[in-house]
Amino acid sequence: MPDIRIRQTRPLDMPAIQALYPAAFPDEDLLPVVGQLLAGVPGLISLGAFQHESLVGHVIFTPCAADADATAKLSLLAPLAVAPESQRKSIGTALIREGLNRLKSGGISQVFVLGDPAYYGRSGFRPETTIAPPHPLPDEYRDAWQSLTLDATVHPASGNLAVPAPWRDPALWRP
Ligand SMILES: CC(C)(COP(=O)(O)OP(=O)(O)OC[C@H]1O[C@@H](n2cnc3c(N)ncnc32)[C@H](O)[C@@H]1OP(=O)(O)O)[C@@H](O)C(=O)NCCC(=O)NCCS
Q1: Which positions of the chain have pLDDT values less than 50?
Q2: Residue 94: what pLDDT?
Q3: Fold of 5-173
Q4: Distance 69 CA to ligand 1 centre (A)
Q5: Which of 27, 34, 75, 125 could form an S-S bond across to 146 if both were Cys, CB 3.0 to 4.6 Å?
Q6: Which of 82, 93, 98 to mutate to test ligand 1, by most ligand atoms within 8 A of the CB atom?
Q7: Sequence-distant (≥ 6) Cβ neighbours of residue 159 within 8 angstroms
Q8: Domain layout of the chain by residue ranges
Q9: What distance lies between CA 64 and its chain's CA centroid?
Q10: What CA–CA distances, in Å, run from 83 to 22, 36, 38, 95?
């Protein structure tokens, strides 16, 4: 991996974050949800990958619970973006790994993601069947709903993932 430093983002990083998402996701506008998450969700992990002080990657981990168990300490990984010119240099993998380390230290038992199993499987995510996503997915995307257990001593929660308001828009759950 090139000379990359990963740290929690700060308000001054917002212009760089606003430039990164349209470049990484030319067909999707994730800036509204990213802005709402960064503006108002307590306990958010927002990590930036910086190369020579420039933002080249970003990931958010949102604290969640289960609708059947409000005490479950869960997390949602999304979104993850790496600048097009910096992709396939392990930056996305490093952002995931750093986030998982921080979540584990913070006592989170399980992390969820909706994404390509070919990519997230490399970081240990497996298809999730016990906890359902906040909105139903079409059958063909069932394997895209995945999780990774960080604390196997905690009994896995069941029901639906209970997410904070910015993640409740059904449009965000259409793959
Ligand atoms: C997907 C993304 C985050 C990966 O980040 P990255 O830093 O390029 O990934 P890494 O370098 O850690 O891993 C690269 C490996 O993952 C694989 N990979 C990359 N993107 C992939 C994808 N969309 N699906 C499956 N595999 C993928 C590649 O095969 C690559 O392995 P290889 O170089 O040995 O062939 C990045 O490409 C990106 O931002 N893409 C656009 C936005 C996006 O789709 N985000 C995902 C949100 S679910």
Answers
A1: none
A2: 98
A3: Aminopeptidase (3.40.630)
A4: 33
A5: 125
A6: 82
A7: 66, 67, 68, 69, 131, 132
A8: 5-173
A9: 11
A10: 9, 21, 19, 13
Per-residue pLDDT tens digits for 127-164: 999 999 999 999 889 899 999 999 999 988 889 999 99
The pLDDT value given to residue 175: 67
Nearest CA to ligand 1 atom 26: 119
What Å distances lie between residue 77 and 2, 19, 52, 152, 167, CA to CA? 24, 20, 26, 19, 11
Assessment of whether the complete model's pTM goes beyond 0.85? yes
- Confidence at residue 156, expressed as pLDDT on a 0 to 100 scale: 85
Q: How far is the C-alpha of 6 from the C-alpha of 15, rounded, in Å? A: 17
Q: Which of 97, 119, 143, 145 to mutate to test the pocket of ligand 1 (most atoms within 8 A of CB)?
A: 119
35 CA distance to ligand 1 middle (Å): 23
